[in-house]
């Protein structure tokens, strides 16, 4: 694992892969239909809340699914980059579009196509079931697996550090 991540309260942007991060990595292949993926409802809640409180959230995925795009749009995610066979150029485009530095960005990835981005960002995260080579190049490994709430785990951690998560002692958001 890497040392010295960016302090969580300094992060402004969270980018992630889809398959194996927002989904459990399984695809249901039915004849004549687009592959079907599962996403965890708790990840969806956290994504929606993060967008609402001003954290920039987006995906960079090699896959290209209309269903995934529609789900993310319903949650308020606007940085949706699907069909990205090379993730680093897309990452650089997002960075340039918002004038970001690597240190302001968290990336959640689970497999080798994510490694180039994970090595650049200020806070690199992998789900607990990520590829072994990916686990070696991140700052943090989540307790939960991909598609099982790992995105919620990361977003909650970041938003708590920023004072933007639910505060039970005050019963307020």
Topology record:
Blueprint: E1 13-16, H1 41-52, E2 56-60, H2 66-74, E3 79-81, H3 87-98, E4 105-108, H4 115-118, E5 123-126, H5 132-135, E6 140-141, H6 150-161
Parallel strand pairs: 1-2, 1-4, 2-3, 4-5, 5-6
Account of the protein in words:
This protein has 173 residues and is an alpha/beta fold. Helix content is 31%, strand content 13%. The protein has 6 helices and 6 strands. It has helices at residues 41-52, 66-74, 87-98, 115-118, 132-135, 150-161, and strands at residues 13-16, 56-60, 79-81, 105-108, 123-126, 140-141. It has a 6-stranded parallel beta sheet, with helices on both faces. Helix 1 (41-52) links the parallel strand 1 (13-16) and strand 2 (56-60). Helix 1 packs parallel to helix 6 (150-161). The longest helix is centred in the N-terminal third of the chain and has 12 residues, at 41-52. It starts with 12 loop residues before the first strand and ends in a 12-residue tail after the last helix. The mean pLDDT is 95.
């Amino acid at each position: 694992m890497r040392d010295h991540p960016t302090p969580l309260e300094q992060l402004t942007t969270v980018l992630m892969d889809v398959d194996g991060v927002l989904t459990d990595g399984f695809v249901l292949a039915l004849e004549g239909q687009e592959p079907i993926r599962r996403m965890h409802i708790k990840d969806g809640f956290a994504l929606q809340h993060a967008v609402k409180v001003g954290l920039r959230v987006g995906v960079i995925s090699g896959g290209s699914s209309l269903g995934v795009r529609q789900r993310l749009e319903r949650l308020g995610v606007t940085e949706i980059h699907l069909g990205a066979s090379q993730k680093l150029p897309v990452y650089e485009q997002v960075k340039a579009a918002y004038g970001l530095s690597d240190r302001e960005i968290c990336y959640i990835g689970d497999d080798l196509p994510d490694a180039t981005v994970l090595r650049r960002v200020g806070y690199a995260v992998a789900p607990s079931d990520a590829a072994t080579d990916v686990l070696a190049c991140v700052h943090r490994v989540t307790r939960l697996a991909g598609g099982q709430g790992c995105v919620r785990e990361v977003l909650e951690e970041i938003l708590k550090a920023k004072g933007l998560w639910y505060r039970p002692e005050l019963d307020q958001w």
